[in-house]
What we know:
The protein is of the alpha/beta class. It has helices at residues 15-23, 42-47, 64-67, 87-91, 110-119, 133-140, 150-158, 196-206, 214-217, 223-232, 246-256; strands at 11-12, 32-36, 53-58, 75-79, 99-104, 126-132, 159-167, 172-173, 180-187. It has a 7-stranded mixed sheet. A two-stranded antiparallel sheet has the order 1-8. The radius of gyration is 21 Å and the shape is elongated. It folds into 2 domains: 5-187, 3-Layer(aba) Sandwich (Rossmann fold), CATH 3.40.50.150; 196-256, Helicase, Ruva Protein, domain 3 (Orthogonal Bundle), CATH 1.10.8.100.
Amino acid sequence: MKAKKRFGQNFLVSHDVIVKIVDEVLATNEDLIIEIGPGMGALTKKLKEKNAMLVCYEVDNDLKKILNPLENDKTKIIYQDFLSVALEDELKKYCYKNLFIVGNLPYYITTPIIEHIIKSNITFNSMIIMVQKEVALRFMAQAKNKDYGYITLALKYYFDITKVIDVSKYSFNPVPKVESTVIKLVPKQNKLDLDVDKYFSFLKQCFAHKRKTLKNNLGNYDWSKIKMVLEKHNLYENIRAEELEENVLIEIFKLVS
């Protein structure tokens, strides 16, 4: 089976990595696992051992001859673009206790897939996904790091994110040009009490031009109020957004919104 570039296909072949991913899925026979992009079914076969209900979404119909033999009363393969799935409605078809999401995501649609899951407003225990290493670094970055930015803080609003394992490009067939990382996203039980749309709009403006100072990026806001927060935390006026911890940015947002 030849991988298709248009689907961003790189099939995971490392047994050790597969075992590590599946070990993070703490599902039982009462639970439901959603796998995004099962590909050649290497991860699917191992997930089946959990004896949970397993629903896999695959966009490539040419993989039917490989994936269909994996189906049984607890494993279902659906040939559909995951981004087009009405998840909230789909999940009503199944009876389960806990939900887990797993996937080796095509790099070019990693963020859209996460956004789709967030917007679907579904409840799940954890999401274990393979992403490009550079993307994982941005997702998990800390303040004062070049990878720290809007997407870091947007995801931090929804999830606690940890690294599971770094994955060599030679763990795939065909071999991609980049290294990968498996990360685990656990939804926060108690989200910050904020107007999410306004907060995210504020963050986008903070990081709109990374080389510019916070003052230059937030020209439409009352700088005297922002300066007051910075002085409270002993921070200088020409600071950049990437140097500010989340709690300081939230404090500024609450004062100026």
